[in-house]
Structures are given as structure tokens and as C-alpha cells.
Amino acid sequence: MGTEGMDEASNMKVVLKHYITGSAQETDMLLTAGTMKLKAPKDSNAVVLKNLFLSCDPDMIFKMTGHKREHCDPYTLGSPLTGYGVGKVLDSANPDFAVDDLVWGITGWEEYSLISDTKYLMKIQRTDVPLSYYTGILGMPGMTAYVGFYEHCTPKKGDYVFVSGACGAVGQLLGQFAKLHGCHVVGCAGNPDTVDLLKKKFGFDDAFNYRQEPDYDATLKKYCSEGIDVYFDIVGGKMLDAVLLNLRPHGRVVMCGMISQYHLEHPDGILNLPSMVTKEAQIQGYLSVNYYHLYPKFLEIILPLIKESKVAYVEDVADGLETAPKVLVGIINGLNIGKKVVAVDHH
């Protein structure tokens, strides 16, 4: 339905009913109807967006627990969830954005959003690639992989690289960056299909299904028999602990997430830290949002790689806002194959 000339529209949204303990369930969220004024208040610097695509990202689960941490507040109960998305500007009181501009950044899990704080919105200049890519390879996950690999992993040709959560939007790209750099790359994922994808589609040298491995230390000794120079950590927990035993001298652990820990009341302890001393290794965590000044440089690198098919990218797109709760719960359970995206309207 067009919105031209309309001052108000019905607005379906996904809201959080209560804070969660343990694993998130679909029933923790509610799809509800409201209305939205389609005009940005004068002098507000705000924009009104029609949301097109929403990104499902693991750290959203952490915001559902009600816990506060340094860089993000928990969700407000009864309000729409927020996360990365792609939208079209319907109205603007902000000189940096015009009507019909396409943008990506933080938006609401709803059909329309009033964005008052636009510092995390980026204008989309290139539309010769699918718009949904700006939730993944050309958005926050792509930047996360780029910054992690090129700014923090200090990779050398021939390095042995291990990636956990390797079939998600960040892991699939980081593994390919490492291959392009001349590294030997092993990944782990949560089901046989994604393990196949890592080897056949993304070019990993080897991969395993972590759910079928009772002893991570033994598994890493098998699949990473030369040891690990670079561990790109997306999951944390017991896998991280096992990696510490398998690092090579001067190994690097670069952390962008801890999917396995977000829903735990008491996170897993890390027992093997003495290895960091004897191996003179490093651990580095980072937030990609602090590197967005590098976004133009990232696009210069990634767009030609996409055009020349030198990187593969797999999306898993669900149709309709009503699918969003199920999809978000699914990524924590490893049910996605590639980057999970919700198309707000049915195609």
C-alpha cells in the first residue's frame, strides 16, 4: 500500500513482553498493531522510515535479558525490538537525509519507524546489489568481519585460522578474507548442511559440526593439527577455552561476540588462560561500531570482490514481519544457513 499523502498509517510491530532467563522463546515476543505518524516533527532532526529488511543478530538476545552492559541498554518492555535494518525515508526533518533516500542502520522491528537519533544511519549509495545485503555483507556484519580480520588479526600468508560460528554473516566473510590472504582456514558450524556450505561454497579448507563433538580439545587437535595462529571468536565459552590449548606461539584471539553465553545466567568460566602466558598470545575484543569511519574503505574492497564473485554470500530471507520472532530464536539454535534476514513485507 502506498503512503503518499498519508499522515498516519497502521504499524505492525514486534514487542518484548517480558525479560527472559535462559533461552529465548517465540512467546517472549508479541506481534501487535499500532499506528504511526508519517511526518517527522519539525526541528526534531528525525526521519520517518518505511522498514524494508530487518537483520537478525545474536546480540539482540542479550538485550532481551534485561541486563545492561557498556555499549547497549536492554530493550524496553512493551516497545518494539530494535536492530539493524534497511529502510526508505518517507519524511525527514534532518538535512542529511531526503525523502526517498535508502538507508541502513539501527531501526525498529516494525513497519514504520521514527528515528530521532540518526548517528547510526548510513545512506545507501550503491543500489546495483540487493538491498538486503546492507543487513549483512555490506552492513554491520560485513564491517565486523573486515575490521576483525584486517585491523586486529594481523594475518600473515600461511597462518592457520580457525573461525567459530563460521556460517553466519560475519564468519562466512571472515573465512573468505583469510583464504584470499593465503591462510589455511578451518570453521565450525551447527549442522551438516552448514558444514558442507563452509567447504563447498565458502572455500574453507575444513570444517566440523560442533554439536557432534563431545571433546573440543580433541576435535581441534584433529582439524587444526598444526595448531592455531588466529582464532576468530564469535561463540566464546567452551570452544574458546579449548582453543587456548591449541594456540601456536604468538597466537591471536580476536573476539566479536559470545553467542553461546548471551542467554546464560552464569557464563562459562575460562580455565586455560595460563596458555596465553606460555604462548605469548594475545586476546583482543572490539566493537565494529567504533570503526564506521572505515566504511568507505571497506566498500572499496568488498564491492569489487562481490562483482567479481571472489567472495560468496548466502542469505536466508524470511518473508513477513510476523516471522521475525521465530527467526530470531532460530539463529541462537543454529537453524540459519547464512545471514538471516526478515523482509518486512511479503514479496
TrEMBL record:
Transmembrane segments: none annotated. Keywords: Oxidoreductase. InterPro entries: ADH-like_C, ADH_N_2, GroES-like_sf, MDR_fam, NAD(P)-bd_dom_sf. Pfam families: ADH_N_2 (PF16884), ADH_zinc_N (PF00107). Residues 14-123 form the Oxidoreductase N-terminal domain. Residues 169-301 form the Alcohol dehydrogenase-like C-terminal domain. This is Enoyl reductase (ER) domain-containing protein.
